Amino acid sequence: MGRYKKEEKSWMMYDWANSAYSIIITTAIFPIFFKGVAENAGVSGADSTAYLGYTISISTFILAMLGPILGTIADYKGMKKKFFLFFFILGTASTIALVFVPANNWVMLLIVYMLTTIGARGANVFYDAFIVDVTEAERMDEVSARGYALGYIGSVIPFIICIAIILLSQMEMIPLAVSTASKIAFLITAIWWICFTLPLLKNVKQIHWVEREPRIVASSFTRLGKTFKDIRQYRAIFLFLLAYFFYIDGVGTIISMSTAYGSDVGLSSTGLIIALLAVQIVAAPFAILFGKLAIRFGAKKMIYAGIIIYIFVCIYAMFLETLVDFWVLAMLVATAQGGIQALSRSFFAQMVPKEKSNEFFGFYNIFGRFAAVTGPFLVGVTTQMTGSSAIGVFSLAILFVIGFVILMFVPEPKSDRHYPGFDKS
After folding, report:
1. How many CB atoms lie within 10 A of CB 173?
2. Chain segment 204-224, per-residue pLDDT in tens
3. Could you give the 3-state DSSP secondary structure of residue 269?
4. Does any domain span residue 115?
5. What values do phi and psi take at 76, rounded to 5?
6. Which InterPro entries match (predicted)?
7. Which among 23, 29, 52 is positioned nearest to 183, based on CA atoms?
8. What CATH number corresponds to the domain at position 390?
């Protein structure tokens, strides 16, 4: 990373840091651990998948309610890092708390998991907004994509360690119960997350801000209302947010519920975990590739490509029966997952006023968070109504289709590297 500035590298390292949470807690080990605890308590597989979906919906709804006003306050001088630090501490502390939840209490497990989700996703609101403080518009696609790639690479290391501990406990090669090994994985996640966040805390500074005003909270509500009006006036931004609302909903739901779905169709936890490890490895070069291709073809076209891949994933999920099928599905997700997230972040960042980045990213995240409420809820309701997790996943295809159609109406910028064409209209 020799050609990147210290601030850019420090910012990208947070993707390295918190991706351990994303794979171990959100995607892989915690959902399998939770479903085991719920099953032992007599909860059916379909119901436990639904309860997990409802928990994700509730936590993201809470954050969606807080995001815009917190983002508005965070645009004041010196406030962005304070809000980032609060949510970072909430996320890491509650992840450690998972270790101490009694192994037979699935309700408490979901409550603590909800706190970890609020902390992790809340910190990401302000982390994403920091991109305008660390790099220039013409480098945002590349820096954002490289951050996601680092996240995939970095998450592999603690993930392998955690998998090794769990597999060794399953084979009785170490004197640990599988549940204890899973809890050790939660602790490793928190330690990794804390250690590699230190460069951001040390080197990344808020350089674009709004000067503080008297009665900061009341002033923030006034500015929030003005920001909402501004977003409506910026036609391109508003249309992009609508498109993002739908397609990122599907992306996030597939990420957070993939292992629960795999378990429901009878795949072993070991096979699921190894497949997810492969996803992390494959996704890293594809995230970089998406960033490179965005320079040539534009970020919007590459977002289209990612949406099309995900539509096929939803259709293919209907026919998933074996571990090989799950591997095919996982590799398809790996090709698009990092790219569509990275380019959405950088595409939006290049449109917004830098000094109001937190305000606009507050809306970016409220659209993303409200979307994350509907996706898991849709899967949960559809699964319970039909008794089929496959149909639940297939129902997400409609979200990708709607997002694709709305994105077609987002005007192309006059230049792939600058966005002077995004005028108020």
Report:
1. 9
2. 988 866 666 666 666 656 766
3. helix
4. yes
5. -70, 150
6. Atg22-like, ATG22/LtaA_families, MFS_dom, MFS_trans_sf
7. 29
8. 1.20.1250.20
